[in-house]
Write the structure tokens for this entry.
Amino acid sequence: MVDTAGAVVPVRMQGTPVVPGVVYAPAVRPAKANLELGAEGDLAEVDRAPESERFLLAANAVAERLRQRASRSSGVAAEVLSANAAMAEDRGWAGAAAARIAGGMPATHAVVAATAQFTAMFEKLGGMMAERVTDLLDVRDRVLAELLGEAEPGMPLPEVPSVLVADDLAPADTAGLPPGMIIGLATERGGPTSHTAIIARQLGIPCVVAVPGLGGVVAGSWLLIDGDTGEVVDGPDPEVARVRVAASEVDRRAAEGWTGPGRTSDGHPVQLLANVQDGPSAQASTSSPAEGVGLLRTELAFLDREAEPSIAEQAEIYGQVLHAFDGLKVVIRTLDAGSDKPLRFVTHPDEANPALGVRGVRIAIAEPHILERQLDAIVEAAKGASVAPWVMAPMIATIAEAREFAAQVRGRGLVAGVMVEVPAVALLADKVLAEVDFVSIGTNDLAQYAMAADRMSAELASLTDPWQPAVLALISAVAEAGGRAGKPVGVCGEAAADPLLAGVLVGMGVTSLSSAPTAIRPVGAALAAVTLAQCQAAARAALDTESPAAARAAALGILRP
Ligand code: PEP
Ligand code: MG
């Protein structure tokens, strides 16, 4: 975008990151299929069989070309090209087109109509099937080009390393990417399991999908793509962009070689833990450098249950997690049912605002036995463990709730804590900490409630950003209270997965960070590169700002000078 004085103004967009890494390069776009379908009128009886034949020959020619490209490719690229070749010859789809031609429709129109019938069906099925819509539209355009005698739609052949920008990419496009010349991908549509994402992962090209506004990017403009955060910037400051690319390269190398344990360069320990949801995910995260589990989201293990699992069943699942990390810290969170994670066996009223309703620990007020049985199951599971599990409640809002919960947990010989997700508890952190053995800050909900912004809303994502100075101030107040009480203060929301923010949190006094296991290495490597004093300076600087962007910039200036 250009302002009135003719200067380029960066345009920031936010999408879903799927392959990490940062690139900065000019944008290229695939050639659009610009196909004129011709007259729609009824075919004469005598022309219908030859038209049908012409359609089949076109579909076969496209299938054959895709198969040849598959034979020249390897791995996933070859698989998706073969799958698309099969789609061009699919009997259902070809039959739907042929039936229309037999009814008098010209082949081009019949192909469009048959494709629309199938894409509507795929979209209705949703999920993986909906993501195959792009593949079928690609086949349609290739067959149309063949019928019309036009060049096959396809990829540009850039002369300098470029970022490929598209509405969505078909596998035939991504599979045929000129190696070394396309160094990043961004698409307006698509999801983390779309073919674009699958092939980008295979090629190791930084990739961001589902980026609203990307349609406004013109070929030739310089783009920054951040596959770690999902940020896409059209026309960024070139110097800033180059620094980010270089930093990402350094980070990537450092993260690959980092093995733990979590500590700053001057030896200040910071436990780096994994967020898990059941036995298999805990087992899988043992291959990361996680020093334990910082958040077992127990409700996620029971999303498909009609009835409350028995104590024995629950004990079996919690036991698997304890076993996977035997001898290490495991923090089990009691059921956080309701709002975005409803459980069928937990009854609570229909509510106008479920995020502000009877969720998390509030359910125990109406149905105390569910919590009691869950705590009994944890005791049962812990019988075979060498370290007593830490148990915490979600959505605590008052001192009395913290006190009551801690009594129940300690009464069973377990270590008692609460989550800090409601600002009321952050504001009274000293008093809450007096009641419990530890706290863990859930920054996802803390940001939602502090900023009065739905965490599920893409439109409000800038408000629920954990870098919001108001959210940072609440976290800092809790961390300081933890220091005064001499009790651990963890962070287990998404904020703990941000390598730059990790330094700021540690500087505030946070003692452990729990995140998706894949984030542990980048966070560990980032902490290993800075001193505690730098973290403390970054925390002070970030807290002194008025916006997330300024807070990030302040932290960058100190932690990555
Ligand atoms: C949080 O709110 O930050 C948190 C860790 O809990 P959940 O995301 O499960 O609500
Ligand atoms: Mg939460």
